[in-house]
Amino acid sequence: MRSDETAGTNYCRGFFSHRKNNVTLQYFKAMEILDNFSLKPYNSFGIEARAGHFAAVTSVAELKEALEWAKKRELPSLVIGGGSNLLLTEHYRGLVIKNELQGYEVLDADDDFVFVKVSAGEVWHRFVLHCLEQEYAGVENLALIPGCVGASPMQNIGAYGVEIRDVFQELTAVHRHEGYTRTFTHEACAFGYRESVFKNLYKDQFVITDVTYRLRKKPVFHIEYGAIRQELERLHVSTLSIQAIAQAVINIRSSKLPDPAVIGNAGSFFKNPSVDKSKYVSLKAAYPDLVAYENEDGTMKLAAGWLIEHAGLKGYRKGDAGVHEKQALVLVNYGKATGAEILEVCDLVVRTVSERYGVELHPEVNIL
Ligand code: FAD
Ligand code: EPU
Questions:
Q1: How confident is the model at residue 4, as a pLDDT?
Q2: Which atom of ligand 1 is nearest to the CA of 146?
Q3: pLDDT in tens, 47-81
Q4: Nearest ligand to the C-alpha of residue 174?
């Protein structure tokens, strides 16, 4: 049972048994809903914001019950996993639902693939470790990404040359208001760079309850991105394996990105922006060191971290809100920053980058 100093409890959850005259009586107590609940431990920015109501759900039935509870009271609801891609700029007056649905299930396998269904509340990195143990290939480049399985297709999480869409088979989701269950195929998810249908057409409409991944029995290695190859050399890896790649990715990530347990952050705050070739050519003429990658459609993706750093904002700090000193794409909370203060830094970065380069940055983080 979760507790919070100032929280009031509306309900208690679970089966309770009581023995009387050699007979076991079972009672079902409804799910626990806590009032005025601190979300500080539930967002990786470590922002002190409170939820009007909070419930942790461990089954689809409880999820539906929680959604119904909010609907009856005409309250909005917010589903969270690890809270690692959220910026809370104010208190949330509705019901925050922490998805704690657990479990893995192998649905099917053939000579090449294994199909694993994973409940949305499972911790993403724990699933990656499970795949490494079972020799299921495909998610090794995505090691150490914080958060839960449920957000992985919503965000189309990606790192080191791999995105969820590369291993995604299908997902199940519950409609927030109507309560029905729907299966989404790969096509229906409309994946894009850190995008999916759940951030656009179906924003705030569905809660993802499980995701099925299509993992390879025979690995296809991706080591061309970033510093993976150099890190494998440094580790003296002579025979490639998914475990070696995961270790290389873990080492690179740990050296570059701030640990939210130490400094509050939500990873890259902005997406890397894309521009057309002619804009890129004029920027490259003015800034020969500019870092950019060609997209499949011929546009150029600019490294936002480079733009921010060369606009002079790397390490910028006002109060406890700032731009990380090692990775300019990451906004940080050094302690007691509010969400509004982080948002001020976000606005400063967007304005400065726009004025200097004529390029618009868009947040990747979900701002509430
Ligand atoms: P939350 O922050 O809890 O939620 C994010 C959004 O998804 C919210 O809008 C929420 O309402 C919604 N949501 C959550 N669960 C569900 C659900 N079950 N159904 C419907 N909607 C849901 N991301 C990358 O892609 N690549 C990286 O390399 C990367 N590195 C990071 C490094 C650090 C240090 C940090 C802090 C973050 C990083 N991220 C990265 C961002 C983050 O880890 C991912 O976006 C992750 O998928 C968020 O998962 P979460 O469970 O914490 O989502
Ligand atoms: N760079 C700078 N200055 C900085 C930061 C970066 O010049 O302060 C330059 C680097 O030197 C490099 C380039 O920008 O040449 C790219 O940097 P990096 O490899 O660190 O990747 P990124 O573009 O900053 C993206 C993702 C990360 C993902 C990594 C690895 C986005 C928005 N971010 O970061 O994802 O882990 O690549 O694949 O696409 C996240 O989404 O939260 C996240 C951390």
A1: 42
A2: 43
A3: 999 999 999 999 999 999 999 999 999 999 999 99
A4: 1
User: Using CA atoms, how far apart are residues 355 and 346, in angstroms rounded to an integer?
Assistant: 14
pTM for the whole structure: 0.93
Query: Catalytic: 364?
Result: yes
- Last residue within a domain, chosen from 99, 116, 135: 99
pLDDT band at residue 31, thresholds of 50, 70 and 90? Answer: confident
Look at residues 361, 60, 45, 55 and name the one whose alpha carbon lies nearest to residue 207: 60
Residue type, 20: K
Q: Are 87 and 112 in a shared domain?
A: no
Which structural domain range is residue 305 located in?
Answer: 259-367
Average pLDDT over every residue of 96-103: 97
Kindly report the length of the chain: 368
Domain count, the chain: 3
Residue 268 falls in the annotated catalytic set: yes
- Give 195 Cα–ligand 1 centroid separation in angstroms: 12
List, in order, residues 6 or more apart from 32 with CB less than 8 Å away: 1, 2, 9, 10, 11, 12, 13, 55, 56
**Of the listed 194, 214, 231, 274, which one is catalytic?**
194
Please state the atom number of ligand 1 nearest to the C-alpha of residue 257.
Answer: 34
Tell whether 110 and 247 lie within a shared domain.
yes
Q: Is the pLDDT of residue 17 over 60?
A: no
